[in-house]
Design brief:
Layout (H helix, E strand, L loop, with lengths): L1 E10 L2 E11 L3 E6 L6 H8 L7 E6 L2 E2 L4 H7 E4 L11 H11 L5 H11 L15 H13 L5 E5 L7 H15 L3 E6 L2 H7 L2 E6 L2 E6 L1 H11 L2 E5 L3 H9 L6 E4 L4 E4 L8 H10 L4 E6 L4 H8 L3 E2 L12 E2 L8
Parallel strand pairs: 3-8, 3-9, 6-7, 7-8
Antiparallel strand pairs: 1-2, 1-4, 4-5, 9-10, 11-13, 11-14, 12-13, 15-16
Helix pairs in contact: 3-4, 4-5
Bound molecules: adenosine-5'-triphosphate.
Adenosine-5'-triphosphate binds next to β2 and α1.
Length: 327
């Protein structure tokens, strides 16, 4: 398990991480999702004991990262964004060397076991420089698994891989998540949606939302934009709908009228339904506009922050300094 309490990291006067708290559970893949510069790498480096925090506390596999960092390192496998591999070594040689540094017994056997786990046994004797980028990434993952850690922290593991390699690695991450506490970072929203049991969205050093992909989607579907299709002239309906308190904008869209509430916590559908009945319009369809994590992410990193509870209910909005996120 990973538990983080009010963690802050300042680089000089700049705060890269501004007091974040979260937990990542065993047997789950927890995704750390955010645009470039959000603070993902900084947080992961603190959790692996490579970077001291400015303030705050983190407990990984039951040990305080900053007070008992050697205990933590024994129990954490870390795949940094760019793995420092020795390109002239073979995959097996590199893993045995890493095993030696970490004081692991039965190094050859352990190295072969992790190569098996990352499906690279057939390239055990290949020099690392002759491996594809995806294979090298898997060698990096193998070194993270070498000491059989209970916690895995993977920093943007799929970056730079081709689509097939990405799919293979995502499958492996899901598989590893079943037997580890697995925290991995990504700026790819669909990846978080596909791989994670729990997603933590971070922007400008702050957590802006946390929940399962379904809960995150549900929270916006409840209060997000809706599509209304009527068997009535849009010109008649638009001013009526636009005047409702629960509606910020009513605009003609490709499939019908797109209605945006004044904030994501307002569900405009009951008010729209009453207006439809009051005006005797024929209703064809009233539904939440399909949202994906991309839209949720943009929504959540705009002016307001919405905390999502595990059941998908949106909590009270908090103020945030964030502007529209760039991913
Ligand atoms: P990316 O996806 O681009 O790697 P990230 O979410 O991992 O982004 P970080 O690398 O943690 O973000 O960076 C967070 C902020 O801290 C950024 O504004 C970055 O410029 C700044 N930063 C990171 N490392 C340092 C450093 N060593 N010195 C000063 N500022 C830093």
């Amino acid at each position: 398990m990973i538990e983080v309490f009010d963690l802050v990291k300042k680089y000089g006067p700049t705060a890269a991480v501004k007091g974040i708290s979260f937990a990542a559970q065993p047997g789950q893949v927890t995704g750390f999702l955010g645009p470039n510069g959000a603070g993902k790498t900084t947080t992961m480096r603190m959790l692996t004991g490579f970077l001291p925090p400015t303030t705050g506390k983190a407990v990984v596999a039951g040990y305080d990262v900053f007070e008992q960092s050697m205990e933590v390192r024994k129990r954490v496998g870390y795949l940094p964004e760019s793995v420092p591999l020795y390109r002239d070594m073979t995959a097996l040689g590199y893993l045995m060397y890493m095993g030696e540094i970490r004081g692991i017994d039965n190094r050859r056997q352990k190295a072969m076991e992790v190569l098996e786990r990352v499906q690279l046994v057939n390239r055990a004797d290949s020099r690392i420089r002759t491996l594809s980028k995806g294979m090298r990434q898997r060698v990096g993952l193998a070194q993270a698994l070498l000491h059989n850690p209970e916690v895995l922290i993977l920093d943007e593991p799929t970056i730079g891989l081709d689509p097939i390699q990405v799919l293979e690695l995502r499958d492996l991450i899901r598989e590893l998540g079943k037997s580890h506490t697995l925290l991995f970072s990504t700026h790819i929203l669909s990846e978080a949606e596909q791989v994670c049991d729990d997603v933590i969205i971070i922007n400008q050093g702050q957590i802006v939302a946390q929940g399962s992909p379904t809960a995150l989607r549900g929270s916006l579907e409840r209060g997000g934009r809706v599509l209304l299709r009527l068997n009535a002239p849009a010109e008649a309906a638009l001013p009526v709908l636009g005047a409702l308190d629960e509606v910020a904008y009513a605009e003609p869209g490709l499939d019908g009228i797109v209605i945006t509430p004044p904030n994501p916590n307002t569900d405009p559908r009951p008010a729209i339904a009453r207006a439809v009945i009051a005006h005797n319009w024929d209703l064809i369809e009233l539904r939440p506009l399909a949202v994906n994590l991309e839209e949720i992410f943009l929504e959540l990193t705009r002016a307001e922050t919405v905390a999502v509870q595990p059941d998908g209910a949106a909590a009270e909005p908090q103020s945030s300094e964030s502007e529209v996120a760039q991913s």
